[in-house]
Write a structure and sequence with these properties.
alpha/beta, six-stranded mixed sheet, 27% strand
């Protein structure tokens, strides 16, 4: 058995009194690929942030090569010999490969950066690990997959013995992913350990020597490679018992209303291709899938935030080439995934945030907005959504996550909506607020409004949806439109285990 290079024992972490990690154990052997899996909220990200110094643990110990260590910063992490490659790459496009690899650690001669030596050092690393890179290539000219290699090389240049990869294939094409897998296998042969975080079971099955599964902040299982059976893994991630009262089983419905939105073979260059579906009046259609499946990108294209390269959209019986302005005027609302970054302006009041998408229907007095009408609209939204506190002048950034989301949804309910797109509507909000959001979506459907729900929360997806479309690698791979559906069925489809 290989030596254990990194070991976390009894790690606990709480936020605002809520336990996120409950005595979690995790170890990595020299030269192994150790995968980490679990549903959203299982504690994976929190554990990794503790190992890399972004968060401090409440209790427990971390050992590096058998000796206790404290990791309180990224610098501490790197000094030990750990490097993290995040999904959002940190390379600087305007710089060359070698400049990125040694950024902040450039070799110097007489105090001046020695570019020749830096290129030589980069070339040595490239040749050692067999990366298809040119030290002088400008990163802006490289594809996403090749940029990721630069990020990996950057970690290896720090003499990293453990590489942490967080959803590394989320933005990669099939060919780019294959190249990454080859690199991981080569790193393992050279004694580098890899912590591989992914929702994609086929990748874990292919690469992992061991797999740790977290569930609700606790260790659920540690499996060796020959024990990694995809259906067993899904069962462990979700929990063995299916409780119908918890919304883990539901019956799907065949739509009866008129078609409101028709999407035909919609494609863009990188995120989705040949996507076709219909949305009917008065139905809630859930979109399931793993991170990087293309769900958010499709919704942004429908609303007009992002472009698409081919295909067509028909809305309310007419061809529709969307822009946000056209979508709003046509009766389409959009609640984005990034609530704080895109859904509201933190320093503005509830009144101003509600008005943001509604100034075209708020009366004017000359050139000025009718502030009385603006305030009246805000009060209607507060009452309709039960926003607390019910103060129209309260800065939305100072509210709880649940009340922030109520404001984001509420501004759309002030319009004559035909379609509401909601992307991860209950992420980071408490159970009570979740139930209120679900009730609002169901009320809208009863009123004939169509709702598209994008959610990574399987329980939520099944509880609220009338139909579920499952996306995988940019395409719709399964539709559940009648009979019972369970979390396992959705996750199996998203993972490629069902046709």
């Amino acid at each position: 058995m290989s030596e254990i290079i990194l070991e976390a024992k009894g790690i606990c972490k709480s936020f605002s009194g809520v336990k996120v990690l409950k005595s979690v154990n995790f170890s990595v052997r020299k030269g192994e690929v150790h995968a980490l899996m679990g549903e959203n909220g299982a504690g994976k990200s929190t554990l990794i942030k503790i190992l890399t110094g972004a968060y401090t643990k409440d209790s427990g110990t971390i050992e590096w090569k058998g000796k206790p260590v404290e990791i309180n910063s990224l610098g501490d992490c790197q000094k030990l010999g750990m490097s993290c490659i995040y999904q959002e790459l940190s390379v600087i496009p305007a710089l060359t490969v070698s400049q990125n690899v040694f950024l902040g650690r450039e070799p110097r001669t007489l105090g001046i950066i020695d570019h020749a030596k830096m290129r030589t050092m980069t070339r040595e690393l490239i040749e050692r690990y067999g990366f298809p890179l040119d030290p002088d290539a400008r990163v802006s000219d490289l594809g996403i997959g090749v940029r990721q290699m630069v990020e990996i090389l950057k970690g290896l240049s720090c003499k990293a013995e453990v590489l942490i990869m967080d959803e590394p294939t989320a933005s990669l094409s099939g060919k780019e992913a294959e190249t990454l897998f080859s690199i991981i296998e080569r790193l393992r042969e050279q004694g580098v350990s890899v912590i591989y975080i992914s929702h994609r079971l086929e990748e874990v099955y292919r690469l992992a020597d061991r797999l740790t599964i977290l569930r609700d902040g606790e260790n659920e299982a540690v499996l060796d490679h020959d024990q990694i059976d995809p259906r067993k893994v899904i069962s462990l991630m979700i929990g063995k018992e299916i409780d119908e009262s918890a919304g883990t089983v539901n019956t799907m419905h065949t739509p009866t209303g008129d078609v409101l939105l028709h999407v035909e073979r919609l494609s863009n260059l990188s995120s989705f291709h040949d996507v076709s579906f219909d949305i009917h009046r008065g139905e809630i259609v859930g979109f399931g899938g793993l991170i990087g499946a293309g769900r958010t990108e499709i919704m942004r294209a429908i609303f007009g935030i992002d472009s698409f390269t081919s295909g067509s959209i028909t809305f309310d019986g007419k061809p529709f080439r969307s822009t946000p302005k056209k979508s709003i005027r046509a009766g389409i609302g959009f609640v984005p995934e990034d609530r704080r970054g895109q859904g509201f302006i933190p320093l503005l009041s509830t009144t101003r945030n509600v008005a943001l998408t509604n100034y075209d229907i708020i009366g004017k007095k000359g050139l000025a907005i009718d502030e009385k009408e603006e305030l009246a609209m805000s009060r209607r939204a507060i009452e309709k959504m039960d926003v607390r506190p019910s103060d129209p002048g309260k800065q939305v950034g100072l509210m709880s996550g649940g009340n922030q989301q109520k404001v984001v949804v509420g501004k759309w309910l002030m319009r004559d909506l035909k379609l509401l797109i909601v992307d991860e509507p209950t992420a980071g909000i408490d159970v009570g607020a979740k139930d209120e959001i679900y009730g609002i979506l169901e009320d809208l459907a009863h009123q004939g409004v169509a709702v598209i729900l994008v959610s990574s929360d399987l329980q939520e997806l099944i509880r609220v949806s009338h139909r579920i479309l499952v996306m995988r690698k940019g395409s719709i791979v399964r539709e559940f439109n009648n009979g019972s559906v369970t979390q396992s069925m959705v996750l199996e489809a998203a993972s490629g285990l069902q046709a």
